[in-house]
Amino acid sequence: MMDRLRCASRKRHPFQGLRRFGLVVVSSLLLTACSVLPQNELAQSMRTYTIEPELPQPGGARPLSAVIHVAPISPASTLQSNRMLYVPRRFELSAFVTSEWASEPAQLLDAWLVRALEQSGHFTKVISGPSSRSADLRLDVELLVLRQEFLQVPSSIHMVLRAVLTDLRAGQVLASRELAYVQPAPSEDAYGGVQAANQAVGKALSDLVRFSAAAGGS
């Protein structure tokens, strides 16, 4: 009788092997996720970030006798949400799971571009919004790329803008320009990308002010 009990106790549960296999699969998936996601991405709760760049210093230039209208910045299709995008490897575009922008990046940039042009002193007046009825010039900006690339260390923010300045009085384009920026991130996580993005936006604002003043005065 005791021998039979011992034999019965040694019999394996029919699902015991399946449970062990399931644990191995789950562990493998977690390890794979950790290897792809940027540092600390799995361990954080949702965090929201904004853009608050340093504005370019006023140049002290004599203002042009022109009113400039800043049209709302137009985002690329991949940037029409508040997702924070990153590239873990070539040709792959992902979004951070626990980090996001406070709004669409283009909307965050709008007010800063207006403030930068106002502060520059290059124009008699800077207006924004959908209507350009009282303006002499119109600045249209497209946000084509804004993402953090983890293809090497340090990671970096890649940002691309396209700017077009139009003379509304003559009904013709005065100039167009594509602006591209690569800004190294100080840390390998979403917050490092936010810091780098703020630096890149600061440089872009300076370039957009110079572009508008030069093309508007030509």
3D structure, described in words:
- By secondary structure, this protein is of the alpha/beta class.
- It folds into two domains: 2-34; 59-216, ABC-type transport auxiliary lipoprotein component (Rossmann fold).
- Helix content is 33%, strand content 32%.
- The chain has four helices and nine strands; from the N terminus they run H-H-E-E-E-E-E-H-E-E-E-E-H.
- Strands 1, 2, 3, 4, 5, 6, 7, 8 and 9 form a nine-stranded mixed sheet that branches.
- Strand 7 and strand 8 (156-167) form a beta hairpin.
- Helix 3 packs across helix 4 (190-216).
- The chain starts with a helix and ends with a helix.
- Residues 1-16, 21-26 and 28-36 have low confidence and may be disordered.
Index terms:
32% strand; single chain; 9-stranded mixed beta sheet; disordered N terminus; Rossmann fold; 2 domains; 4 helices; alpha/beta; 218 residues
Q: What's the layout of helices and strands?
A:
Elements: H1 2-10, H2 16-36, E1 47-49, E2 64-70, E3 74-75, E4 83-87, E5 94-101, H3 105-120, E6 123-128, E7 137-149, E8 156-167, E9 172-184, H4 190-216
Parallel strand pairs: 1-5, 2-6, 2-7, 3-7, 4-7
Antiparallel strand pairs: 4-5, 7-8, 8-9
Helix pairs in contact: 3-4
Cα separation of the termini = 105 Å
Would you count the extended β strands for me?
9
The assigned structural class equals alpha/beta
The appropriate CATH architecture of the largest domain is 3-Layer(aba) Sandwich
Rg estimate, integer Å: 26 Å
- Tally of distinct domains: 2
Uncertain stretches: 1-16, 21-26, 28-36
CATH topology of the largest domain: Rossmann fold
Q: Count of helices?
A: 4
Overall average pLDDT: 85
